[in-house]
Amino acid sequence: MKFRNKTCFSRILWLNTYFTKQVHWFTKNTLPPAILFKYFAYLCTKLISMEEYLIISNANFLLRVASEQIAYVCSEGSYCNLRLTNGDEYTFSFNLVVFEKKIVEQLDQTAHFFARVGRNYIINSQHIFSINLNTSELVLYNERFCEKFTLHVSKEPLKQLKALLDNSIKS
Length: 171
Prior knowledge:
Mean pLDDT: 80
Order of helices and strands: HHEEEEEHEEEEEH
């Protein structure tokens, strides 16, 4: 198994060590199987809930947001609007390139879910609901969203995104 970076490997090594110690403690103290099962289920939920957070700050404001809560980032000149899945919107005074760098630097395991679409958007590809090339619309939606987000993107980036998704399905 290849690891992209050492932090990913060290997290897995830590989890493996942690679980090994817990299992050893259980076998040594011989707890009833029902309690073992409940505790193992608890440990699994802790493992699954290890979220990555993006921390964005400027002179007066700091935002810490889980990567799965980010719907998209929109560029408006030298400003960026970050739109969350719950409908909240935050404006930052830096451009989309800086936002891209922050995503790559801070999100080790989930950065590959974010895609630059055209000149104005970075989207979370986990939330793609539909792509309509005729109307040049990209709709982001998930059952946890409070609303659908309809983005108007030029046709060429939408064609590339659709082709990328089609290829990922075929392979």
